[in-house]
């Protein structure tokens, strides 16, 4: 494959997944420029994440698989993504329904995953089968961790009585899922796919459920349903 084809193949999964989650918003899609901005910030996070990870590996080593998966890899990456979403969008006026948290967190996550995918393709070279595997696993994994993050950010913003609890969950749960994803690959090196398939299936099931829940709790949805009932009455 030539360079352009490799780049397009590396970018396509992230853009496709972002479009999928963006269009899952039932009531009011987010400003596309704002989603694009969050995606770009996700791209920009890759380099500092790599620098910090290299520093941690140099200081504490990367031999311990649990520490690497849950702290150096999953922990650091999910914290950086959470930090960007929280500080750029959590108080933003466009974040006006629970599902919006999912859109913005997924945008950051897929920006990160897309550049990571490009770098992997450029450094290692790749085949069609490997590109498909990466689309189904690392790239979609980042998206699903983003759904987890955004779902609880939405709960935190619109259930203020439990804001701190849900903010903590919005950071902790993606770290645990991402860390588990990495840990499976590190520990079960030869047969990791047999553990990863049920893991990703469970994660997708939880993701679809959370998407539906977030849409159901939209204040915009309640307003529209009230208007429909008023017109019928």
Automatic annotation (TrEMBL):
What is the protein's membrane topology class? Multi-pass membrane protein
Q: What GO MF annotations does this protein's record show?
A: metallopeptidase activity
Q: Name one GO cellular component term.
A: plasma membrane
Q: Provide the E.C. number(s) assigned to this enzyme.
A: 3.4.-.-
Q: Name one GO biological process term.
A: proteolysis
Quote any Pfam family the record assigns.
PrsW-protease
Q: What keywords does the record list, in alphabetical order?
A: Cell membrane, Hydrolase, Membrane, Metalloprotease, Protease, Transmembrane, Transmembrane helix
Give the family per the record: Belongs to the protease PrsW family.
Protein name, please? Protease PrsW
């Amino acid at each position: 494959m030539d360079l352009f084809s490799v780049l397009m193949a590396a970018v396509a999964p992230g853009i496709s997944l972002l479009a999928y989650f963006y269009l899952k918003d039932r009531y009011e899609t987010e400003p596309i420029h704002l989603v694009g901005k969050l995606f770009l910030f996700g791209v920009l996070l890759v380099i500092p994440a790599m620098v910090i990870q290299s520093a941690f590996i140099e200081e504490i080593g990367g031999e311990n698989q649990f520490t690497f998966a849950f702290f150096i890899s999953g922990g650091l990456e999910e914290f950086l993504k959470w930090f960007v979403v929280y500080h750029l969008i959590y108080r933003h006026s466009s974040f006006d329904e629970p599902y919006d948290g999912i859109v913005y967190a997924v945008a950051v996550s897929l920006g990160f995953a897309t550049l990571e995918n490009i770098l992997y393709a450029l450094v290692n070279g790749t085949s069609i089968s490997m590109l498909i595997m990466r689309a189904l696993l690392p790239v979609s994994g980042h998206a699903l961790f983003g759904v987890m993050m955004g779902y609880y950010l939405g709960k935190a913003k619109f259930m203020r009585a439990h804001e701190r609890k849900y903010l903590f969950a919005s950071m902790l749960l993606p770290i645990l899922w991402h860390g588990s994803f990495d840990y499976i690959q590190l520990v079960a090196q030869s047969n990791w796919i047999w553990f990863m398939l049920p893991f990703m299936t469970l994660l997708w099931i939880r993701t679809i459920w959370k998407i539906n829940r977030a849409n159901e709790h939209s204040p915009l949805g309640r307003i529209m349903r009230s208007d429909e009932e008023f017109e019928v009455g």
